[in-house]
Design goal:
Blueprint: H1 15-65, H2 72-75, E1 86-93, E2 98-104, E3 114-115, E4 118-119, E5 122-126, E6 131-132
Antiparallel strand pairs: 1-2, 2-5, 3-4, 5-6
Length: 138
């Protein structure tokens, strides 16, 4: 016995379903890109912190044989980091104290660095090991 069946249409996607799929993919890609950018900024910040720690060691070696801490030229401090994302400076250097500073330049997104509401574009450390802003060093 043969039944008359209406041939079914091949399954496919409507334009609305395709548009929604593209929208979801776009949103996920945008979130992934933002997360990647934030992770990259934090990685570069930690590299700047490591460089400041190395500069602290240089300051202590200098002070061991000199009557005061070194300024930028005495340390032989380059004006910028190798990648150009930070400028280095020694705003304070005297017989009892120093401040080492890393300031984000306009290269890349590093000058938009923040930890929550705290601006992390300028990182500092002094002779006692105090970090400023402290939340950016965590």
């Amino acid at each position: 016995m043969h039944t008359n069946r209406i041939p079914s249409l091949s399954p496919g996607y409507t334009l609305v379903e395709l548009a929604m799929t593209l929208l979801v993919i776009g949103l996920l890609a945008s979130m992934a890109a933002s997360s990647y950018r934030d992770g990259l900024i934090k990685t570069r910040r930690s590299e700047a912190q490591a460089s400041l720690t190395q500069l602290q060691l240089q300051q202590e070696r200098w002070r061991a044989v000199n009557p005061s801490y070194a300024d930028a030229s005495e340390l032989g401090l380059a004006q910028q980091s190798r990648d150009g994302r930070y400028e280095w400076s020694v705003p304070v250097a005297n017989a009892t104290s120093y401040v080492l500073r890393a300031t984000a330049t306009s290269i890349g997104a590093q000058n938009q660095d923040h930890q929550g509401p705290i601006d992390c574009k300028v990182l500092e450390v002094d002779q006692s090991g105090q970090h400023h802003p402290n939340d950016c060093w965590r």
